[in-house]
């Protein structure tokens, strides 16, 4: 039994030759790279890797190999600095590295 008011929709097929880039796209996202004076292959040859400046507690625990409980104990004792941003507790990546390398001896 077909439900009332439901329609089966035909999938939309996109034709790239009919598409035009929007004005908010980056200049290298289109085939026209005259504004950059750099060939398209050179732009996309090296991917950009961004490193996080701060980590949430789960991510900090995963990256450090420590449990969340251990991180909270370190925060409460003052050995590790953390920041509150809205409802999140963040640990700076630099602070986490300092904490791990400083506690490697024991």
What does this structure look like?
This protein is 31% helix and 10% strand. The chain has a three-stranded antiparallel beta sheet. The chain has a domain at 54-102. It is an alpha+beta fold and 106 residues long.
Largest sheet descriptor: 3 strands, antiparallel
* Strands ordered across the widest β-sheet: 1-3-2
H-E string: HEHHEEH
Q: Mean pLDDT across all residues, rounded?
A: 74
Give the N-to-C terminal Cα separation. Answer: 69 Å
Helix/strand-derived class?
alpha+beta
Uncertain segments? 22-30
Number of helices: 4
Describe the structure using short key phrases.
alpha+beta, 31% helix, 106 residues, three-stranded antiparallel beta sheet
Topology, element by element:
Layout: H1 40-44, E1 54-56, H2 57-64, H3 68-77, E2 83-85, E3 88-92, H4 93-102
Antiparallel strand pairs: 1-3, 2-3
Brief digest:
With 106 residues, the chain is α+β, with helices and mostly antiparallel strands. The chain has helices at 40-44, 57-64, 68-77, 93-102, and strands at residues 54-56, 83-85, 88-92. It is 31% helix and 10% strand.
């Amino acid at each position: 039994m077909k439900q009332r008011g439901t329609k089966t929709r035909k999938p939309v097929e996109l034709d790239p030759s009919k598409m035009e880039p929007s004005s908010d796209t980056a200049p290298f996202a289109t085939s026209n790279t005259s504004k950059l004076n750099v060939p398209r292959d050179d732009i996309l040859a090296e991917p950009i890797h961004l490193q996080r400046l701060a980590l949430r507690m789960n991510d900090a625990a995963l990256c450090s190999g420590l449990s969340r409980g251990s991180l909270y104990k370190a925060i409460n004792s003052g050995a590790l600095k953390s920041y509150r941003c809205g409802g999140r507790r963040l640990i700076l990546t630099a602070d986490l590295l300092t904490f791990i390398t400083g506690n490697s001896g024991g």
